[in-house]
Amino acid sequence: MANSARGFSDVEIGGEKIQLALGLGALAELEDAFGVDSFEETLDFGKKTSAKRLRKWLLAVMRGNDVGMTPERERAVNAMSVAAFMEALMGIMQASGMTQHEPAATGEETERPLAAASAGEPG
């Protein structure tokens, strides 16, 4: 089980639970992969959503967590659905403390990545 106190989340990829966190290594990998100065720019999935972008994001986080890429893991990432990716993203963001809480219309709180709030589009 992932150590959520240290910001880790268990992410299921191809039936395997992998512990991922947004530590400095993962953030640096994200910035390098996308050629940006701030990792928040890598979370702009609104107008720039593509399968390549989602895949690149997850692979960068895995590299930053020293997860060895085997052919099986690469195939599993390639086979992920968008829903599975978004679930993994939210788990990683929540464990890292990088979500914001907003009251929903029903009075419940919803969570979304911080960059989504700054993208200027309704979440």
List keywords for this structure.
two-stranded antiparallel ribbon; 123 residues; globular; alpha+beta; 44% helix
What does this structure look like?
The chain has one domain. The protein contains five helices and four strands. It has a two-stranded antiparallel sheet. A two-stranded antiparallel sheet has the order 3-4. α1 runs antiparallel to α2. The termini are far apart.
Tell me the radius of gyration: 14 Å
General form: globular
Strand content: 15-25%
Series of H and E elements: EEHHHHEEH
Helix coverage percent: 40-55%
State the separation between the terminal residues, measured CA to CA.
Answer: 30 Å
Biggest sheet strand line-up: 1-2
Could you list the spans in which at least 5 consecutive residues all have pLDDT below 50?
none
Total E-strand runs: 4
At a glance:
With 123 residues, this protein is an alpha+beta fold. It has helices at residues 24-34, 51-64, 71-79, 82-96, 114-118, and strands at 9-13, 16-20, 99-103, 109-113.
Detail the topology: elements first, then pairings.
Elements: E1 9-13, E2 16-20, H1 24-34, H2 51-64, H3 71-79, H4 82-96, E3 99-103, E4 109-113, H5 114-118
Antiparallel strand pairs: 1-2, 3-4
